[in-house]
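G., the chain you wanted modeled:
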Amino acid sequence: MAPGAAIVASMDCLTDDLIAAYNGGPAFTLPEPPPALYAAAPPPPPGAKGLYGGRMDNHVDSANFTVAWANGDATTSAANDASEALEAAWTALVEEQGWAPPVSSDDYFVWVILDPGLSGTGLTYELSTDEYPDGYPVILLNPNYATNTRFWRSLAAHELNHALQYARREYLSGREEPWYWEASAEWGAELALPDVNMYATSSVYYADATEARYSSMEGYHQYGMFPLNAFVEETMTGAGGMLAVWERSEALSDERWDAVLEDALGVDALRLFAGFSGAYAEETLRESSMYEPPATIFSFDGGEQSGEVNYLGSDVLQASRGMWVELAEGDALLANGDEVGARLWVDAGGHFTVTGGADGAAYTLIEGDEGDTGDTGLVDDDGGGGGGGKKGGGTCGLGAPRQGAGWLGLVALLALGRLRRFPPRRLG
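Predicted structure as tokens:
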């Protein structure tokens, strides 16, 4: 590795200092890479992967990774657990699901460093060298979290997802970029290690602020947005939907994620996020029983009612009785577990959402006339069902992506218990 190697990009996983920097706090300084990463890299052995750089005090090598740490920083047990989780995640994501591997991994191990000095749980950055001028990924894990085995395994899988994301898209600065990296890495941890089921605990970050802007970094909201990917794959595309979004993002590297999602999935962003929020509120996702319910739910009794939401954020409401609900005014869409539109039927006790088309979008709701099935005068007025008390079916008015082909079928519904849980400040 060239002595002039430099960090070219980084993806935090709830390193608190970096989150604070995104939210207007002091600038974040990345940890200095250990000297071993700057050592000369010998050619890899024939038919095997080699070490890119030099050795640290301790290491555990596997087929695709070297997990290393300085004396006193971690234990061999923690390293072995991380190594096993990373290899299982590699098999699932790279070999079975088709994610492109990191740029350096054809010839060299992926570096994983156990660093108890991190301000959070994990960090993945790119290091630029003469051989890899665009950067290659280095994963850092905080071994202080290794005693929680499920969390530790999920963290390792989450960080590997970031390393794979770098192979698809350069990490861009700014508040609009990080949220989908984290939402994808959380869902990717579930795709990689479905038996661990640690990912679901981060749903509390969305549930506590459903009304927030879709790209919000406040209160770790970005980690809680993973159910959007669950919604896409479970109701629209089948397995591989999130990967298709990332693949499409390569050609749209200068676009925000709302535009990338629109292009990759062939559906308007407002309609997409409305459908997602309705499915979340009505608990129609495969593992909804594991997700935290929305913290704020407004009651709707049919009287004129107003509110305000942010761009692609959603208010959640509960109908006091079965009725038609109409969006009388506002740049927004209504949704429940079955439909998206400006008018829809909601059963007694049923939940529905109002999703904003702009920041600070004001809206007004009214009870609709059961006999009036005409145009409300608003855009996207294709909600409603087949008559009073009837619901539509299908995928919340959303179809398969225009360019998608060969999507797999939906997975079976799992019966899982609910427990309010707060993840240990990450899900890095």
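Confidence is low (pLDDT under 50) at residues 1-11, 373-397, 399-428.

Shout if anything looks off.
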